[in-house]
Amino acid sequence: MRSIESQCQAVREAFDDTPALSTKIKNQILLGIADALIECTPFILSENLKDIQRGQAAGLDVAMIDRLTLTAERIIGIADGVRIVAGLEDPIGEEMSAWTVEKSGLSLQKIRVPIGVIGMIYEARPNVTVDAATLCFKTGNAVVLRGSSSAFESNRALVEVMHDVMQAHDVTRDLIQLLDNTSREGVDTFVKLNQYLHLVIPRGGASLIKHVIQTATVPSIETGAGNCHIYVDREANLKKAIPIIVNAKIQRPSVCNALETVIIHEKIAGDFLPALAKELESKGVTLKGDDAARAIVPTIFPAVEDDWALEFLNLTLAVKIVSSLGEAEAHIHRYGTKHTEVILTEDARRADHFVKTVDAAAVGVNVSTRFTDGGEFGFGAEIGISTQMLHARGPMGLPELTSYKYIMKGDYLVRK
Amino acid sequence: MRSIESQCQAVREAFDDTPALSTKIKNQILLGIADALIECTPFILSENLKDIQRGQAAGLDVAMIDRLTLTAERIIGIADGVRIVAGLEDPIGEEMSAWTVEKSGLSLQKIRVPIGVIGMIYEARPNVTVDAATLCFKTGNAVVLRGSSSAFESNRALVEVMHDVMQAHDVTRDLIQLLDNTSREGVDTFVKLNQYLHLVIPRGGASLIKHVIQTATVPSIETGAGNCHIYVDREANLKKAIPIIVNAKIQRPSVCNALETVIIHEKIAGDFLPALAKELESKGVTLKGDDAARAIVPTIFPAVEDDWALEFLNLTLAVKIVSSLGEAEAHIHRYGTKHTEVILTEDARRADHFVKTVDAAAVGVNVSTRFTDGGEFGFGAEIGISTQMLHARGPMGLPELTSYKYIMKGDYLVRK
Is pLDDT at A18 greater than 80 in this prediction? Predict the structure, then answer.
């Protein structure tokens, strides 16, 4: 087993020593990877099976085994994702702005460049291995993948497929590396390797992300945790509100942009909540509400304080009744995680108040929370959803994986 | 003495509870601060004198006392800086981009917002107190200032002047706060207050910055350290090269964009170095060179390995002779701090190679290193020069003190 330090050092050296690859060669390699993933499906599935069997023997639950499992269809999906990345515009080298400073004659250009070596820390989803590697590769970054030990054979197979394509194009495989050491303690070593890594991105559960943020000395981007709310205003179209809430809660309950709490204005709660509850309960959703909600729909379970702060990530939904827009905003401020917050209303001024007051990566008006997503934003792909203020916020596409440098030119200019 | 936690909590609450101030009121307050600084000059100087006397008693060296010292003229300079900030465009609320996603009809806007509460950590330069506070205020951020204990009375006086103006405009003074606790241990507490601070920016010497980067759990921006090089290519105009090197080295040797090493192509070194050395030595510069340089100009002192990595920050300049452009680039890669790197050449292709190969916040062609500066870039002001890849790189002006949020709108849109 290679050490974390030696692997990261090799990647940093590869990044430093490899001249910028042309867009053409990067796209050829990406398309080659997509083809190779399909061709190598039997190999990938047989390696994946080892992980699945080990997971089953270790008693992993059904949901975890499902996340871990690759199928021919899922591999087609992963390959299609790589083709999409190949088709996206290459941000590297883009002139972001250019100007001349009058007083001195200094000519300036701001040019997009890669960030450098990116450390990805993620859980047992083998698709992230290919997603993250190809997004980093397209943006001229090198990547060190620290996947879950439970997906190690799958990840190794996927990286091997990518390496073969890179080598066939005479590009060093060290631009994409998978850590051999997937121990828990290894994460702490990894996120402190400032001499090799420019950035670490944790993707996964809240505890993983919190641990990385607290431990890392390498700059990091906080992703993911989403305690998302929809506020049904007294001026909402109640009929149209129900499908949005159903979509936000049940389309994919386990993801960060799923709805966790619905907040309802008291003026319309008496009409709205029974219809909403009926629809949701018929779809298997468990409701947990405050006293006012339970007074309207007695089948709602009582919510405890912790429920307001919890990302259920399953078919549970908290219900809160408020007497004003301000109270809804205050509740979101107190319990939200600044991921996605939505108001349903027909009143443009009240929508505007919500949009200005509520601080979140994405604030929505009359839309499902599920739209906070790189694909839905039209970015083509995303490496994660940032919930911090620095560098990038919300869905992170290709430009969010870049930095820039200034180029100063002059005719032998000295500063006055 | 208020605790660090209680002061930061108060600032965070003020930030959370204060609706966004209009550009007009922000500018009125900034202009009011500029006027008040001038009016209160006697008060500020008398408080500053306490710090100076304490510093002298403690045996601070002349350079440190100079940095600490305010004069009527310096206060005019600080006030002028605030007027410039007042005159700059307000980035907050700017629509950075807007688009509609065809497949869903989702309408998106990307809007500039403040970052939040910014912690500034700096050394004994009282002007930074006003610079940082007014830049943060203009961009809608709140700021916690952690100045040096040796400038405490000066900083307190300056903050008091700012507070009086804010209060006269009914704006809470908690948006700008100076920490009472300026102990060394206090820094470690400060940079871990993730619940109150969104960002910390250390400004000062390399050891302070390194300590903050290593200790902080709050996101931080690394500023400042600049081991800057000028490479005199074999195709440079040698006559014009000398004034650039003189400007870069001696205009202000103590700052981060000052020149520390000149690298000279061996083909022109025999002609160029004697003339350069003569000019620099006549201006009091001490040269430290490699063997090749000393073979050409015997008065040059021998350089030791550490000299190549050192920011002298005084009138010392290292001299290195290379046999190729690639060797110059490799030397910069090895010893540079990715701040500012310059090539002097008449050959556009060689300039282009240098610009593409050298990784630094600012890469220059035929200009002095001293141009890497918010003012020289036309930003009007700067809060520091970032040497990291994330969020901002190079001189940080107003836009670099902002984040953004997405606003999603639709006609009761659900995700397919």
Answer: yes
